[in-house]
Design a protein that fits this description.
Blueprint: H1 7-15, H2 20-34, E1 38-44, E2 50-54, H3 58-66, H4 74-79, E3 86-87, H5 96-107, E4 113-120, E5 126-133, H6 137-165, H7 179-189, H8 194-201, H9 205-219, H10 224-233
Antiparallel strand pairs: 1-2, 1-5, 3-4, 4-5
Helix pairs in contact: 1-6, 7-8, 7-9, 7-10, 8-9, 9-10
Length: 239
């Protein structure tokens, strides 16, 4: 499980997608590179409408939708109250309903380990990006330790592209920032240092500074913190 991969190539592949099917193909490729069981991008609205792409078995996807499992899924319920990535083992699986759900999921090929990244935007937009696998706790912690930061960036790329494919779900706020400026501001909003942002985006700190100053000027912000606050309030970035 886990192997070195070119993050910039994955982000480039995502940038070049123009349909949900192509986004799904990138998910399959990334799953294979990481040598894990599944990758899922899952969007659910208040009315129960579900949207996204997944490498889960078709039988589980159909069963999940037919039984409206999103209403009881501990992952969705738990992550909705959180802003940071969540290891499934940190969620509450103690209830009778949750245990029955987990048993059904495992029987349909869902792995015993999961790591979900909540993504929020304006107008109540909420989605989850999940990686899933079957392995020991120690092996899973090692995997997340090695790839956690990259997965956060990939999750936000998935969300941004998915919203482009579903215009009716896309926020109304204008996007005045460039894709790279959005990436930089998103990672800074998530608490990354400038060095970590530059490393994640495979650019120099000098180039990152250019993106930050450009975003700050477009937003009319006094400093970087002010720029992040303005970008969040206008829905230009989601965290």
């Amino acid at each position: 499980m886990g192997t070195k991969f070119d993050l910039s190539r994955v982000l480039e592949d995502l940038e070049n997608t123009s349909t949900l099917d192509e986004l799904g193909a990138v998910a399959v490729g990334l799953r294979d590179k990481l040598k894990i069981d599944h990758i899922v991008y899952h969007w659910v609205d208040g009315g129960g409408d579900q949207y996204g792409c997944t490498t889960y078995p078709d039988a589980w996807v159909a069963r999940y939708q037919e039984r409206n499992y999103h209403r009881i899924d501990p992952v969705i319920l738990g992550c909705f109250q959180r802003f940071q990535p969540v290891d499934w083992k940190a969620l509450d699986w103690s209830g009778k309903v949750a245990k029955a759900f987990l048993k059904d999921a495992l029987a349909h090929g869902v792995g015993n380990q999961g790591y979900s990244i909540p993504i929020r935007g304006p107008n109540g937009q909420f989605a989850l990006f999940t990686v899933n696998h079957s392995c020991t706790d120690d092996a899973w912690q090692a995997f997340i330790g090695a790839y956690g930061r990259e997965l956060i960036l990939i999750a936000h790329y998935f969300n941004r592209k998915a919203l482009e494919f579903e215009r009716s779900r896309q926020p109304d706020s204008p996007r005045s920032l460039s894709p790279r400026e959005i990436d930089a501001m998103t990672l800074l909003a998530l608490g990354y240092s400038r060095a970590q942002v530059a490393h994640s985006l495979s650019i120099s700190e000098h180039t990152l500074r250019v993106y930050i100053e450009s975003a700050r000027a477009k937003l009319g912000a006094l400093n970087t913190t002010h720029a992040i606050a303005k970008a969040l309030s206008r829905g230009l970035i989601v965290v």
